[in-house]
Amino acid sequence: MNIEIIAVGTELLGSRFADTNSVWLTERLEDLGLQPIRRTIVGDQGPGLETSLRLALSSGGLVLVGGGLGPTGDDKTREATAAALNRGLVFREDVMAAIEERFRRFGWPLTEPNRRQAWVVEGAEVLANPLGTAPGQWLEAEGRTIILLPGPPHELKGMFQAQVLPRLARLGRRHLARRLIRTTGLGESAVEARIEGLYPDDPDRILTVLASPGRVDLRIAASSSVSPERAGALADELTSRLKARLGSAVYAESEIELGEVVIGLLRRDGTTLSVAESCTGGLVSHRLTDVPGSSLVFLGGYVAYADAAKVRDLGIAPSLLESRGAVSQEVVEAMASGARLRTGSDWALALSGIAGPGGGTPEKPVGLVHIALAGPAGLIAERHVFSGRREAVKFQAGQRALDLLRRRLSGLD
Ligand code: ATP
Ligand code: MG
Q: Among 4, 19, 127, 148, which residue has the most ligand 1 atoms within 8 Å of its CB, making it the best to mutate?
């Protein structure tokens, strides 16, 4: 069944008000194992709603419309829906009576515009609105269903929960299973290349790939009308095929960050870590200390930004800084060794680079970061050039450093 959501309201097209109703409706649909194929926002004025409704009707299924049922002249949902269905509007005495009753109860004076809310599309089933005046409407036309809901979030939610959800659930409840695969170290196109041919073509499974700096997430959703176990099996089958292709780039299968994975591995081994940071300015230490229980394994971090701090806090030889420059393999290796020696940790990570936007040269461009890991068996160093703005370079450098340690601790590479 194709499901669409249309949010009506000119304010939702501006930058100040987000269409939170549609997100909320999507969450409720997901609970039923349903996913909309399209979400649209249209303004109160103009032909937007009618054309969007006609388009939605042409793809069949179910259309949820939120907003524009108010008493004022700019609330056009009733008229636009009637037009899209080639139907008229009818005045419903019972709806008018309910509105009058509500106004009497609150002691409000009834005004002429309130009468507008008693008009409904021909053939509509009225959905009562105990939290407001505008009733909702349930419309069926040639196998398609249009549901009109009021715009104020608490009214929309109340009406959806009480009157729409039970009927949708009867239409066909589906069981939903979700899986997540988190990867690092591969760009989006590298991930795409690896998973080629694995995009599901059955309607019961959806794979979405979401890239951000330093990370590519793969989200798998599977649904089944049979049982939760069947949905789970469908999701697991795809997940394991994806994981086989992605190999050691996979670092988590839940919403956790790389810092948590690394802390977990250190705790497993009973080993300790320290960090010496230049360009990342403490970001790696911050990400590690975000993890509850990190104090058991994380001994400390140095933010050695200036050359003088590298000399004073980590014991880097001034002559090395002079000859190689602060952003060099030799200096990060010395930083990692210095942090390991001074804290007595088993492992030490060090980073030095050029986060930009200024400071780059042809040999040492913006985005260049040297990373070193000192450990019981010696030193490993890597050189990377990351793209993006300053924060993105810092994040990716930290991600790569944490991944270097993850791989080491996991016995990969
Ligand atoms: P009603 O059917 O009650 O007239 P409406 O959408 O016409 O609904 P508005 O006055 O436009 O009424 O909206 C009422 C309130 O609900 C406003 O604060 C508006 O910003 C908010 N609202 C409407 N639609 C949404 C939405 N999709 N997401 C979040 N808030 C919304
Ligand atoms: Mg509105």
A: 19
Give the three-class secondary structure for 306.
Answer: coil
Q: pLDDT tens across 297-319, in order?
A: 999 999 999 999 999 999 999 99
Tell me if 7 sits within 8 A of 66, measured CB to CB.
Answer: yes
* The two three-digit tokens of residue 198, written as one number: 């694995």
| Gyration radius of the chain over CA positions | 29
- Show the CA angle centred on residue 109, arms to residues 107 and 110, nearest 5°: 120
Q: Whose CA is nearest to atom 18 of ligand 1?
A: 152
Which pair of tokens denotes residue 220? Answer: 């798998």
**Does position 172 have pLDDT exceeding 80, yes or no?**
no
* Ligand 1 neighbourhood includes 48 CB (under 6 angstroms): no
Count the neighbouring beta carbons within 10 Å of the beta carbon of residue 377.
Answer: 7
| 8 A C-beta contact, residue 246 and residue 197 | no
pLDDT for the residue 73: 79
pLDDT in tens, 27-69: 998 888 788 999 999 999 889 999 999 999 998 889 999 999 9
Higher pLDDT, 146 or 413: 146
- Two tokens, residue 31: 């609970």
